[in-house]
Amino acid sequence: MTEVVELEFSVPSRQSKGFLRRVRQAATLQRAMKLEFTPETIDAVAAFLVNYVTVPETREAALEALMDATQEQFENLLEAAAGGPGPLSTPTSEAS
Question: What is the mean pLDDT of residues 29-45?
Answer without folding.
Answer: 89
